[in-house]
Amino acid sequence: MKNVDFDQFEWNAALIERYNLAGPRYTSYPTAPQFHAGFDAEAYRQALIDSNASQAPLSLYFHIPFCAKVCFYCGCNKIATGDTSRCGPYLERLYQEMDQIAAVVDTSRPVHQLHWGGGTPTFLSHQQMRELMQQTRARFQLRDDDQGDYSIEIDPREIQPDTLPLLRELGFNRMSFGLQDLNLQVQQAVNRVQPREMTEGALQQARELGFRSLNLDLIYGLPHQTPESFAQTVEEVIDMSPDRLSVFNYAHLPERFKPQRRIRAEDLPSPEHKLLILEQTIRRLVEAGYVYIGMDHFAKPTDSLAIAQREGRLHRNFQGYTTHSDCDLIAMGASSISQVGPTYAQNHHDTEGYEAQISQGQLATLRGLVLTQDDILRRAVINQLICHFALDTQAWSRTWGVAFNDYFASELAALKTHEQDGLIEIRPEGLRVTPAGRLLIRSLCMVFDAYLDQPSLGRAFSRII
């Protein structure tokens, strides 16, 4: 099928109200609620061994859970502390985990992608960051040609003048900066005061050092935000000209995330204002030349993410949209999730459980999943729709040796309602998501999800919009 025009979307308020239910974000399929304790450390170890037969390149993820200060909106797995000494024992366990993995994985497989997330990875001292990269390089085949995607999440409040030069020296060439909002009242309400000059200065320094892709994270739905105030933030962000933008929806769940109890529900924008903020933001970013990649991601047309989407190579995993669909993702650290061959494996969530299991000479796997053939077929459909807004069903049938229309006859019947509502076109050659359907892509993907238990959706997942 011909690629769709990616910088078009249609905001249909009536359809959004009708379909704006809870649903997965599809960073994996099956989604994390399907993971189970029957998939243990030994199962993950065997999956790592089996993966060597493919000789697929590697993507490495390291979770650094420490932050100097807690942001009240945060729902991430993190430890807010001023005690930098806590990093030492955690890093030692990371090195032990690397040893255990390197003992079974063919480490000649090149590492095409590497990411440090958190938490705040730059909470580590410069010496600790240097050591972590050295320990990684000693065990895995890191690239030396600067052609891999080596990225790190940055809090501009927690860097020194020589931090970014060090990261570039260590081999990082991509960065993601937390920003959230530039309005001072909003920043104060979420305990993250970060003047524009601080973020802009870090972006400028990163460009001068040769970082080739810079991302800014924004959050809408925070206390005291209004459509007018967030529109001003978006204008200033456009002026800063990041290569990519993530615009996340704040989900207020104080019963699950203790820091959110510091946010007063009465200070949050109304649902109507949240939708207006999102609509204005998408329109303005597209107008400014950004490509609406999907979900909450935007990129300049020249960015590798937009290029991969145009060329049909975009993929989605636990880190969001990615250009590396061919890699086995090996994730290390507390709560991290790996995707190796037809398996998912998640480490212990808390650092105590993680460190205890690693110190006993075992991989820290808490739960996981081996995909069935049905899972793999459905994952291929969902990934194609959520990344490319179109599916060539005839090509899919040839690739998998399965007649799409027969295998998914009930799903195609269920999609008729979506087609009547103008969200998708069902054609003999395949499926095409309409501009109105792109904002509701999660709803379309849910039709192909064999695990959804409708009564539990609201407890397990956020709303689509």
UniProtKB/TrEMBL annotation:
<dbReference type="InterPro" id="IPR023404">
    <property type="entry name" value="rSAM_horseshoe"/>
</dbReference>
<comment type="pathway">
    <text>Porphyrin-containing compound metabolism; protoporphyrin-IX biosynthesis; protoporphyrinogen-IX from coproporphyrinogen-III (AdoMet route): step 1/1.</text>
</comment>
<comment type="similarity">
    <text>Belongs to the anaerobic coproporphyrinogen-III oxidase family.</text>
</comment>
<dbReference type="InterPro" id="IPR004558">
    <property type="entry name" value="Coprogen_oxidase_HemN"/>
</dbReference>
<keyword id="KW-0627">Porphyrin biosynthesis</keyword>
<keyword id="KW-0963">Cytoplasm</keyword>
<comment type="function">
    <text>Involved in the heme biosynthesis. Catalyzes the anaerobic oxidative decarboxylation of propionate groups of rings A and B of coproporphyrinogen III to yield the vinyl groups in protoporphyrinogen IX.</text>
</comment>
<dbReference type="InterPro" id="IPR034505">
    <property type="entry name" value="Coproporphyrinogen-III_oxidase"/>
</dbReference>
<comment type="subunit">
    <text>Monomer.</text>
</comment>
<dbReference type="Pfam" id="PF04055">
    <property type="entry name" value="Radical_SAM"/>
</dbReference>
<keyword id="KW-0479">Metal-binding</keyword>
<dbReference type="InterPro" id="IPR010723">
    <property type="entry name" value="HemN_C"/>
</dbReference>
<feature type="domain" description="Radical SAM core">
    <location>
        <begin position="52"/>
        <end position="288"/>
    </location>
</feature>
<dbReference type="GO" id="GO:0051989">
    <property type="term" value="F:coproporphyrinogen dehydrogenase activity"/>
</dbReference>
<keyword id="KW-0408">Iron</keyword>
<protein>
    <recommendedName>
        <fullName>Coproporphyrinogen-III oxidase</fullName>
        <ecNumber>1.3.98.3</ecNumber>
    </recommendedName>
</protein>
<keyword id="KW-0004">4Fe-4S</keyword>
<dbReference type="Pfam" id="PF06969">
    <property type="entry name" value="HemN_C"/>
</dbReference>
<dbReference type="InterPro" id="IPR007197">
    <property type="entry name" value="rSAM"/>
</dbReference>
<keyword id="KW-0411">Iron-sulfur</keyword>
<keyword id="KW-0560">Oxidoreductase</keyword>
<dbReference type="InterPro" id="IPR058240">
    <property type="entry name" value="rSAM_sf"/>
</dbReference>
<keyword id="KW-0949">S-adenosyl-L-methionine</keyword>
<dbReference type="InterPro" id="IPR006638">
    <property type="entry name" value="Elp3/MiaA/NifB-like_rSAM"/>
</dbReference>
